[in-house]
Amino acid sequence: MDWLDDVKWDAQGLVPAIAQEAASGDVLMFAWMNREALQKTFELQRAVYFSRSRGKLWFKGEESGHVQTVHEIRLDCDADVVLLKVTQLGHEPGIACHTGRHSCFFSKLEADGRAGARWQAVDPVLKDPESIYK
User: Fold this and answer.
1) What is the pLDDT of residues 33-48, one digit of tens each?
2) Structure confidence at residue 60 as a pLDDT band (50, 70, 90)
3) CA angle at residue 62 from 30 to 58, to 5 degrees?
4) Do 96 and 19 meet the contact criterion of CB atoms below 8 Å apart?
5) How far is CA 27 from CA 69, 76, 96, 102, in A?
6) Stretch 5-23: mean pLDDT, rounded?
7) What is the CATH number of domain 3-125?
8) How far from 91 is each of 10, 17, 98, CA to CA, in Å?
9) Do 60 and 67 contact (CB within 8 A), yes or no?
10) CA–CA separation, 66 and 55 (whole Å)
11) H-helix or E-strand containing 69?
12) From 8, 102, 108, 131, which residue has the greatest number of CB atoms within 10 Å?
């Protein structure tokens, strides 16, 4: 049996993928993969995702230069989520988010006396997105 058959793909033929920085353990981003994206990621040792909005493969860094080198590919216990252990390239420290931040998970829920809680950006923009995507 093909190793790709071990993955539990959703009704659209996709599986959630989490990119984690190998050195720091930081969770960088979440994206989707189809069979072809996962196969290419394994073959190239470079993160390849499936863009649902564009309906095509997305080679991480193809526009921004912020490529993810893949060191490990793991599958969770239910076989329905993929974890990529990566090195984020293209800027020091690496930028994974299209907002120019290290991680896409830069908003933290914080208590607010009046409203109860609110999302607060807690990580800095490392590079202006306008200069990344031309």
Assistant:
1) 999 999 999 999 999 9
2) very high
3) 45
4) yes
5) 15, 15, 10, 10
6) 97
7) 3.10.20.810
8) 34, 22, 13
9) yes
10) 21
11) strand 68-75
12) 102
Average pLDDT value for residue range 11-25? 96
Would you give the DSSP letter of residue 46?
B
Read off the pTM. 0.88
Whose CA is closest to 133, among 62, 67, 46, 51?
A: 62
Per DSSP, the residues of 84-99 read: EEEEE-SSSS---STT
State the chain's maximal CA–CA distance in angstroms.
57
- Beta bridge partners, 32, equal 16
Instruction: Name the nearest CA neighbour of 3 among 38, 27, 46, 30.
Output: 38
Residue 8 CB-half CA count within 13 A: 7
The beta-carbon contacts of 9-13 under 8 Å, at least 24 apart in sequence, are: 9/34, 9/35, 10/80, 12/52
Q: How far is CA 126 from CA 5, 53, 78, 109, in A?
A: 39, 26, 36, 21
Burial classification of residue 114, based on how many CB atoms lie within 10 Å of its CB (0-12 exposed, 13-18 middle, 19 or more buried): exposed
